Amino acid sequence: MKIILASQSPRRKEILENLGYGFEVVPSGSDEKIELEEGIDHAIEELAVEKAKEVRKRFPDDCIVAADTVVVLDGRILGKPASKQDAIDVLVDLSGRAHEVKTGVCISLPNSDISFCETTHVHFRNLEGQEILDYVGSGKCMDKAGSYGIQECDFVQKIEGSYTNVVGLPDAKTDRILRKIINR
Fold first, then answer.
1. Cβ-count burial of 48 within 10 angstroms (0-12 exposed, 13-18 middle, 19+ buried)?
2. Which domain holds residue 159?
3. Of the residues 99, 167, 169, 184, which has the fewest C-beta atoms closer than 10 A?
4. Which of 11-15, 16-20, 28-32, 94-98 has the lowest mean pLDDT?
5. How many helices, marked H, and strands, marked E, lie in the chain?
6. What are the Cα distances from residue 150, in Å, to 23, 47, 162?
């Protein structure tokens, strides 16, 4: 049984590589619409499950790893920015405040799924207007939930929880589950 990463995120790929796993990258084509009826944690976990199910159709005998990450501020989901102005507005909102980063993960096997949602609390320092403009101008923020990548900016004052969860995949819990599955 091989491992399939159902994501084209270079950050998730790097996290799995750093854990020492060999895998194939097969992005999911599933819809990333968030249904909030049962809460954010459940919704983000279900997104990961749907991504895994979509890839499972093509790889019925393999282990599928799927994930989705969102940033939450005051109960509001901050996805990837739609424009540079959107990114600026989000970073201004996050400045000097704490927010949550939630990653839903699904590790799907041929006969069962293991899914969970991990939350990390991130505290931003007060950001200067020019550093926000410089960061947004670099373009690095455009493909990231919450308009930032923790690994490439110095906005974070403190985190409570998994650093790699903020990057896109909680490595410790994912590794624990995969080790049990593949008896490593």
1. buried
2. 3-182
3. 184
4. 28-32
5. 6, 7
6. 25, 22, 12
**How many domains does one find in the chain?**
1
Tens-digit pLDDT profile for residues 129-150: 999 999 999 998 888 889 999 9
User: Across the strands, what pairs with 57?
Assistant: none
Tell me which amino acid residue 74 is.
D
Residues facing residue 98 across a β-bridge: 123
> Which one-letter amino acid corresponds to residue 96?
G
**Residue 53, token pair as written in the block:** 């199910």
How are beta strands 63-73 and 3-5 bridged, if at all?
Answer: parallel
Checking if the pLDDT of 83 tops 80, the result is yes
Q: How far is CA 183 from CA 22, 48, 59, 61, 178, in A?
A: 14, 23, 20, 17, 8
Q: Where are the beta strands (DSSP E) in 13-97?
A: 24-25, 63-73, 76-78
Residue 48 tokens read as: 């990961």
Tell me the mean pLDDT in the region 13-31: 91
CATH number at residue 41: 3.90.950.10
183 exposure class (CB count in 10 Å sphere: 0-12, 13-18, 19+): exposed
Which amino acid makes up residue 172? A
CA 91 to chain centre: 18
This prediction's pTM? 0.91
Catalytic machinery residues: 68
